[in-house]
Amino acid sequence: MLDTREKMRDYYRRFYDAATVTDVALTNWYVGEWFLFAEARWRLDLEGGGRVAMMTVEILPLGSDGKLVGRSGYGTSFE
Fold first, then answer.
1. What are phi and psi of 9, to 5 degrees?
2. With 70 as the cut, is the pLDDT of residue 79 above it?
3. I need a labelling partner for 37 at 20 to 30 A (CA). Which of 24, 62, 76, 78 fits?
4. Does the pLDDT at position 21 exceed 80?
5. Which domain of life is it from (predicted)?
6. The domain spanning residue 55 has which CATH number?
């Protein structure tokens, strides 16, 4: 769980040290009255060589003012 700013920063630092993003494609998305949903396929070149893909899903709830009030996401491993 990435529940602090430091954990989030460390995760992204390790991610971008391990891989270079070569493509991101939205495969599914939906905008509802109270949330946004997005599914994406990522293609990555690994630092040690090789190419892999992973999927991510994001759900972003909206407040009554239309602003984002949170974020929940999940991604498959690329290791």
1. -60, -45
2. no
3. 78
4. yes
5. Bacteria
6. 3.10.450.50
Q: Tell me how far CA of residue 29 lies from CA of 7, 15, 64, 69, 71, in angstroms.
A: 27, 24, 21, 18, 15
User: How many structural domains comprise the chain?
Assistant: 1
Q: Give the bridge partners for 62, in sequence order.
A: 68
37: containing domain: 19-75
Alpha helices by DSSP H, listed for 1-79, are: 5-18
Q: How many residues does the chain have?
A: 79
pLDDT in tens, 42-73: 999 999 899 999 999 999 999 999 999 998 98
